Amino acid sequence: MRRDIFQAIADPTRRAIIVLIAVQAMTPNAIAEHFDTTRQAVSKHLKVLTECELVQPQQQGREIYYKLQIDKMKEIDHWLEQFRKIWESRFDQLDNLLETLKKQQK
Amino acid sequence: MRRDIFQAIADPTRRAIIVLIAVQAMTPNAIAEHFDTTRQAVSKHLKVLTECELVQPQQQGREIYYKLQIDKMKEIDHWLEQFRKIWESRFDQLDNLLETLKKQQK
DNA sequence: TACTTGTGAAACCAATCGGTTGCGCATATA
DNA sequence: TATATGCGCAACCGATTGGTTTCACAAGTA
User: Fold this and answer.
1) Alpha helices (runs of H) in chain A, residue ranges in sequence order
2) More confident site: B105 or A88
3) Among A23, A26, A29, B20, which one is most buried in terms of CB atoms within 10 A?
């Protein structure tokens, strides 16, 4: 199933999971201990994250370690790039200057 | 109403609206012309974007211009910062190297 | 072999989402 | 004043979401 990465990071629990496994790969059970939900709920979140390739499962015996695919996070960064151009531009700085002048006039 | 910016950018139409008004402030009618939906649907999206302060309305006669608050986008950038640290780190590069070696062994 | 452990999948549920239509209300304009 | 325009809000609707409980199954362990 094709998934949207932005929809994947919309959920706060999912974002917390991402932060958690960014440090090191973890099993669903280990992850669930950090939250006030069932393992199954975490499993569902991991499914979403896997479907959009933000996370990759690695079977090890009967345990499955989920590892963050940090490269995929760059997709968000890439989308932000167009706005970074704006907020770093002089036009934006001019805009802020005009706003400040406007407020001073009041 | 308090809103989550990540939930706000989860919707593709909403992201398109953000890109659209990044160039210049626009009215709901003008925005709606760019999409295959009603003005009311766009109005709802703008409400969500306004509630999380990604967008600001500016009344002008009977028209309302919606302007992107580019500064708010930095919040996403800020969340990404922790991952940027990882993907720019040598540990990550070492990780990739190990992965490559592993594949070559097969 | 019997039991325990780690896991995903299915069925269900209330809440939320993104869309529509219909409405009311200002603000131009004739 | 009457009419047209731009807009937000409310009510409604089907689809999706995030959670739960129950179950099945493979992998270790007694």
Assistant:
1) 5-8, 12-23, 28-32, 39-51, 70-87, 90-105
2) A88
3) A26
- Yes or no, beta carbons of B82 and A19 under 8 Å apart: yes
Identify all chain A residues contacting B19, using CB atoms and an 8 Å cutoff.
82
pLDDT for the residue numbered A84: 94
Cβ–Cβ contact B10 with A under 8 A: yes
pLDDT at A105: 66
Considering only CB atoms, B7 lies closest to which of A10, A71, A79, namely A10
Please compute Rg for chain A using Cα positions.
20
Protein CA at A20 to nucleotide C1' at C13, angstroms: 29
Domains of chain B, earliest start first: 5-68 (1.10.10.10), 73-105 (no CATH)
Instruction: Please tell me the distance from the alpha carbon of residue A82 to that of residue B81, in angstroms, as a whole number.
Output: 17
Distance B1 CA to C19 C1' (A): 21
Choose the weakest-confidence range: A18-27, A90-99, B8-17, B52-61.
A90-99
Using CA atoms, how far apart are residues A23 and A67, in angstroms rounded to an integer?
9
Residue-level pLDDT at B62:
97
In tens, the pLDDT along B32-45 reads 999 999 999 999 99
